Amino acid sequence: MFHNSKKSIVYSAACLFSAFAMVPTAASAGHYKKSGRCPVSYGALKSALDAAVLQETSGLDFQMWGTVVDRDGIVCAVAFTGDNRGSQWPGSRIIAAQKANTANAFSLDGLALSTANLFSAVQPGGSLFGLQESNPVDVSVAYAGNSAFYGTVRDPLVGKKVGGVNVFGGGLGLYKLGRVIGAVGVSGDTSCADHFIGWRTRHNLGLDQLQGVGGVSGDSERPDNIIFDITPNPSGGAGISAGGFGHPECINTGDPSLLPAISMQAAQSH
After folding, report:
1. Contact 157, 78 (CB under 8 A)
2. pLDDT at 136
3. Backbone dihedral region of 151: left (phi > 0), alpha (psi from -120 to 50 degrees) or beta?
4. Can you give the three-state secondary structure of 147-206, one letter per residue?
5. What is the CA radius of gyration of the chain?
6. CA-to-CA distance for 183 and 113, rounded, in angstroms?
């Protein structure tokens, strides 16, 4: 009996130690950022996202989640707007992370693709049909940790690869001197407003230095901008995008041509 009690004590202590080890600390959350690979800090993302929500008037005027990943798809920062983490759709935390992962995964130094550019291409018969199934979310990362830390500097996603592919507006590559260094994803409003807010967030971060980078929008000043060129399909189902990279319009849709033009920073020679 005494032996069993000792085993119980040892087991309980081990479980307690394991539980504490799984709780992110300010030091562990900051360790990754100090490595120099993270293009954006929590504070910078939070400020840029807060400002973007105030600047944008389209959509439903909802609060937002935002995520930044580095070029390896590792989460750098997660933030939200509003009074607390219940002021937004809870599901948008992971959707924002998916969008950041997608924009990073499918943008290059020479070609920027926003998640909004992928909608039509992944529909049945589209040139990228099936892409949305290609890089699933790692649910062991997505839902781990203490929910009280969600959207803070200690968010459990920080330093991890969450994966996921999302194919509607809100994810954009981050560019410095013409080179992609990661991506930002936002979620919480209509998919169109998500794109507009994500665009403004990137601009506020000063990481829209896409001068000389190609895109599919047809606008060299906004190469990865959302495209509204979908017309009804007479056969039913998803509409037809004239250019193959269109996105549906939403409630209270804004004018994408009024979004800030990309930075005129000169690209580095590659």
Report:
1. yes
2. 95
3. left
4. HHHCCCCCCCCCCCECECCCCCCCEEEEEECCEEEEEEEEECCCHHHHHHHHHHHHHHHC
5. 20
6. 11
Query: Which tokens sit at 76?
Result: 């750098």
Measuring CA to CA, how many Å separate 211 from each of 172, 207, 216, 223?
15, 11, 14, 9
β-pair type (240-241, 230-231): antiparallel
- What rounded mean pLDDT belongs to the chain? 88
Please say whether the beta carbons of 58 and 253 come within 8 A. Answer: yes
Q: CB atoms < 10 A from the CB of 43, how many?
A: 11
Question: What's the pLDDT band for 36 if we cut at 50, 70, 90?
Answer: low
| Residue partners of 84: CB distance under 8 A and separation at least 6 | none
What's this model's pTM, rounded to 2 decimal places?
Answer: 0.86
Given a contact cutoff of 8 angstroms between Cβ atoms, the answer to whether 119 and 246 are in contact is yes
How far is the CA of 128 from the CAs of 69, 125, 136, 167, 230, in angstroms? 23, 8, 16, 11, 17
- What token pair was written down for 200? 């403004």
Give the homologous superfamily in CATH for domain 27-258. Haem-degrading domain (3.30.450.150)
- Element of type H or E holding 50: helix 42-55
C-alpha to C-alpha distance for 15 and 72, rounded to whole angstroms = 33
Nearest C-alpha neighbor of 174 from the set 127, 152, 207: 207
Q: How far is C-alpha 107 from the geometric centre of its chain's CA atoms?
A: 13
